[in-house]
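Students often ask why we bother encoding 3D structure as a string. The short answer is that it lets us treat folding as translation between two languages. Here is a chain of 183 residues written in the first language.
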Amino acid sequence: MDFLAKLASDFIGLFQKGGEVFVSLVSGIVPLLIVLMTAVNALVALIGHERIEGVGRYAARPGILPTIVRYTVLPFLAVFFLTNPMAYTMGRFLPERVKPAFYDAAVSFVHPPLGLFPHVNPGELFVWAGIAKGITDLKLNVGDLAVRYFLVGFVVIFIRGLVTEWITKAMMGRRAAAESAKA
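And here it is in the second language, the structure alphabet:
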């Protein structure tokens, strides 16, 4: 009989815990995201949708400078100002063909700046804190590591952006070929 009572209690406890998590999301991240979305939309309205789309059009152009902007500067600005997870919305100003690569670059950059700018991804700050603790225990400079981590992050997001753009282009080409074969 005790087994059944414990089983019933644990079963209900599972849903109670789920309810607690849900309430924490509703009272924590959801209002934050709504306020961030409102602020970003207000900023876009103030700057002008056309100007922001112009930056997106520039970043989507072929050439080395627009490519560097697309996969380093744009993800950095998005992560720095909008933080995780709102940063990914910056991709809405880019054409469809480069959105997956921008997203890959932005999502790959939410950890590297943590040592210098902890506001960009506070939910993952414990990762940086663990690394920093190990570096401190070794009596090494945490600031040096933070700068190196940040700079390597730029190299990584640029490479990931290029590779994902190449993969996306290949996949879109296959889709177009398949659709033209059907017609």
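Translate back mentally: The two ends are 68 Å apart (CA to CA). Keep this in mind for the problem set.
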